[in-house]
Amino acid sequence: MRRTTVVGLLAVPLSIAGLYWLMLHGFLQLAAILLVVAVLGMIVAAVWEWRHGHRKWASLLLAGALLTSGAVGYYGWNLNHQLDKVDRIAAPPGFDDEGQRPKEKPTKALNILLMGADNPDQNVEKPTVAEELADGKWDVGAYRSDTIMVVHIPADRKTAYVVSIPRDSYVPIYDESGKRHSENKINAAFSEYGPFGTLRTVEKLTGLRMNHLAVIDYEGFRDLTTAIGGVDVYVPETVYDSYQDQTWEKGWNHLEGNRALKYVRQRHGLTNGDFDRVARQQNFLRAVMEKTLDDGTIGNPVTFTRTLAAITSHLTVDDDFSNGEIRSLALSLDGLDAKKVKFVTLPLDHYETVETAGSVNIIDAARAKELWRAVGDDTMSRYLQKYPDDELGDQRDVS
């Protein structure tokens, strides 16, 4: 056997191992470039071997190039197929009529309203959010949302900010047509008027245009943790949740499946109730991001496919949020790691008991106005320099 042939045969597994290492360590673009170079190299080598009468080796090299291209093509097709599973919901007629919503700013920055949909009766199987809205009508009380977040992605795509609106925030509620109703806890908007009623309410509250909305049900949180093998969070003090009959021991706790759901749902037993629950939700998302972005999940084809399937199977977005735009957004965020994602919570003025709504959070209106202005002006870094305590603390300090 010729020396060049031996070298070539050894180079193939070594190259595959090298590419896999690059993918696992986050060098996806470099791995993709080298993969293209490798395929082109095999084709050139096959042509050279063929012209020199080495038909057998030419056939093997060409077969290798075709198999590699086919495998990569199938992987890409499968990822796109996963995006096709995302449910889409259409806004009601007249939703975008002139003057009905805050104006879009001439910027590449994005605001995405992220909501968690929770079935209040776990023993009753219900249609999905998209199925609920298929006929244009919302079944009042079918779902509630205890997770409402404005995800702000600046124009330079170098950072991201997640601003949580606690579910007990006492605000005017608007329906999907923009009609104002009485003040209530903000999660009443989702229960009574669905995703588009919540979007209207948040836009009225913030004065900001939401470019897109996304709803993920709580089963999606559960399946996501299973797909990535769970995440670890630190509990600073042992705490008992009487509502879910769950004790969280001081120290590191592994969250996966239903245990992860219990962690993000807990409010009872926490000192600051709703605000501590928000901190837990943010802490959980931070841990998930660290696992998926920093530990090679994206670079591992098998794990990434499972992770994407867990998300897309439980995700609903507005019908203007196309697969192409989702792909473009994901590519534009290449290089964004978990440390560059900042979590903030809407400022509180005080707690109050309201006869029609019970215990509620009264928002610090002046501070909130400053926060939303910073989001709209893409100056969140300056806001957090001024109010550093508004950012989610170290993972060891989250209740």
TrEMBL record:
Q: Does the keyword Lipid biosynthesis apply?
A: no
Q: Which residues form the Cell envelope-related transcriptional attenuator domain?
A: 144-292
Which InterPro entries does this one have? LytR/CpsA/Psr_CW_biosynth (IPR050922), LytR_CpsA_psr (IPR004474)
Q: Which Pfam families match?
A: LytR_cpsA_psr
Q: Where exactly are the transmembrane stretches of this chain? A: 27-48, 60-77
- Which keywords accompany this UniProt record? Membrane, Transmembrane, Transmembrane helix
The UniProt entry, under NCBIfam families, shows: lytR_cpsA_psr
Q: From the Swiss-Prot or TrEMBL record, give the protein name.
A: Putative cell envelope-related transcriptional attenuator
Species in which this protein is naturally found: metagenome
